[in-house]
Amino acid sequence: MSEHTVAKTGELDEGDRLLVELEGREIAVFNVDGEYLAYTNWCAHQAGPICEGTLSGTWDAEYDKEDLEVSMEWCNEDEVLSCPWHGWEYDITDGKSLTSKAQLPSHPVRTEGDDIVVSL
Ligand code: FES
């Protein structure tokens, strides 16, 4: 396992992301509510640049069989990463697809002093 200092904590505010190349791979580091998360820039659908996608929320729908009505609610604001190629959505907090069993490749991140360190 190799370790790489990618930035200082003060350079990556909450909601920010940083795309870096480590050992020939594009890796994005996200600051999600003060927690640093790193994923390979690779979408499980067709290898699109998932980490360059929009970070937003998603619609949750429920169907009431008795009333025959659909209700929709916007949820998980700033926790859903959408692929810019075809729109697959992933939970940024764990890298899991919202609609399949796909998982973004993740990497351990830690801070050492004010350094953000990614392990590959
Ligand atoms: S490559 Fe990401 S949704 Fe198709």
Automatic annotation (TrEMBL):
<keyword id="KW-0411">Iron-sulfur</keyword>
<dbReference type="InterPro" id="IPR036922">
    <property type="entry name" value="Rieske_2Fe-2S_sf"/>
</dbReference>
<keyword id="KW-0408">Iron</keyword>
<dbReference type="GO" id="GO:0046872">
    <property type="term" value="F:metal ion binding"/>
</dbReference>
<keyword id="KW-0001">2Fe-2S</keyword>
<protein>
    <submittedName>
        <fullName>Rieske (2Fe-2S) protein</fullName>
    </submittedName>
</protein>
<dbReference type="Pfam" id="PF00355">
    <property type="entry name" value="Rieske"/>
</dbReference>
<dbReference type="InterPro" id="IPR017941">
    <property type="entry name" value="Rieske_2Fe-2S"/>
</dbReference>
<feature type="domain" description="Rieske">
    <location>
        <begin position="4"/>
        <end position="118"/>
    </location>
</feature>
<keyword id="KW-0479">Metal-binding</keyword>
<dbReference type="GO" id="GO:0051537">
    <property type="term" value="F:2 iron, 2 sulfur cluster binding"/>
</dbReference>
